[in-house]
Automatic annotation (TrEMBL):
One of its GO terms (molecular function) is ATP binding. Belongs to the CTP synthase family. InterPro entries: Class_I_gatase-like, CTP_synthase, CTP_synthase_N, GATASE, GATase1_CTP_Synthase, P-loop_NTPase. GO terms for cellular component: cytoophidium; cytoplasm. It comes from Myotis davidii (David's myotis). Its EC number is 6.3.4.2. It catalyses: UTP + L-glutamine + ATP + H2O = CTP + L-glutamate + ADP + phosphate + 2 H(+). Keywords: ATP-binding, Glutamine amidotransferase, Ligase, Nucleotide-binding, Pyrimidine biosynthesis. Pfam families: CTP_synth_N, GATase. This is CTP synthase. Catalyzes the ATP-dependent amination of UTP to CTP with either L-glutamine or ammonia as the source of nitrogen. One of its GO terms (biological process) is 'de novo' CTP biosynthetic process. Residues 14-67, 68-171 form the CTP synthase N-terminal domain. Residues 239-466 form the Glutamine amidotransferase domain.
Amino acid sequence: MMWGRGGWSKSKMKYILVTGGVISGIGKGIIASSVGTILKSCGLHVTSIKIDPYINIDAGTFSPYEHVVPHITDAIQEWVMRQALIPVDEDGLEPQVCVIELGGTVGDIESMPFIEAFRQFQFKVKKENFCNIHVSLVPQPSSTGEQKTKPTQNSVRELRGLGLSPDLVICVHDVSSIYRVPLLLEEQGVVDYFLRRLDLPIERQPRRMLMKWKEMADRYDRLLETCSIALVGKYTKFSDSYASVIKALEHSALAINHKLDIKYIDSTDLEPSTLQEEPVRYHEAWQKLCSAHGVLVPGGFGVRGTEGKIQAISWARKQKKPFLGVCLGMQLAVVEFSRNVLGWQDANSTEFNPNTSHPVVIDMPEHNPGQMGGTMRLGKRRTLFQTKNSVMRKLYGDSDYLEERHRHRFEVNPVLKKCLEEQGLKFVGQDVGGERMEIVELEDHPFFVGVQYHPEFLSRPIKPSPPYFGLLLASVGRLPHYLQKGCRLSPRSGHLPRPSVVMVPHSSIAPW
């Protein structure tokens, strides 16, 4: 193994590519994150890359008519190598392993340039530094009850035809809990395999991280009590639209030993117009909202459904139901408060009403309204707490600041800060320049919080996001006790049924 003066030599960076076949949503992300978890538990510095296989200038506003064609395979390889070297751990050291999840399914036309790029890449970085894991499906038709390997054989054949031969094929079926996947892979020898295949400097000592993971997975099966959260959004027909939000809620629910029951509510169903047009839908939506233990309004864009979200926020504020607003959810919480407490009846965001006389939410100076793409405030930013008397500050470990990821074009109008705070809506977190409102808390309420950033992006199973954790604690009535105890929980152990995850070397699969 080669070590430079600064540690692991750049020339020895190890790359693990995770591809998928047969169907989309097969579990590439779960396998990629599980592999990363196992390697981190061995003392390695691990980074990850998720590639959505679209050749596009700005994937945030995708258009199939904008493509970057010349030398695309070289550009992909260079980008991967640059990203792989960016430190992601608190010690600031460069990663030793990069786990790459290539989205989509082998054979998709949009992923062809990326497959070709990695075909070339494996020779550029050499065989001992590159490993390909292929995730596939083993269906079990109810008519026969027999597991079928033909789809996997076809998928691997196609991948080999494109120049990539998988080192490992991981077949997943009937997985009852994703939290067991890292443990099962470790039990089946994935660590020893990577040690040999990639010549990794793996520590020979007990892996504390996996022990914590096992404790968490064991607790999952003992969950008896349920916490219900009303997720009020505009894309609720497709739960994948809120995948990060849902995972953050799951992480927090598990941390307080509760099952999670998400009540999906289309915000337009809460609006008065729905009462006139479809009264049954209207009453069903309100019944869901009223029966939930807590309310979450996530981010989003566009005017549709915003009035329904404001209705939900108003109800949570008045009924003292725990509430968390994320990005647009925070902005609409300010709009609702301005209308119903300050009496500014036409208060709104300029995104929805450019002519409002009370623009409580405005577009940022750097945002060009004439161009949607590439104009958002993105990435990890620092937020400074403005007071020690803040629930959010305590949830973040009583730190003076936090760093979370952002993705927005509009912000709370700082000019109106004083008017809002005088009535009890406190902006307890602001950016380093004191110009942007990042965290808002309502006085005399069990938990009424809005954050401009997206805390779900940094939530982890063993380390849940503080805002989501606070929402779940408040929803089950345990937040005051948690804060009094110095923000500590006592985990309980349990046992979880073993899911079926099979890892096999490529060479052991039936020949084609």
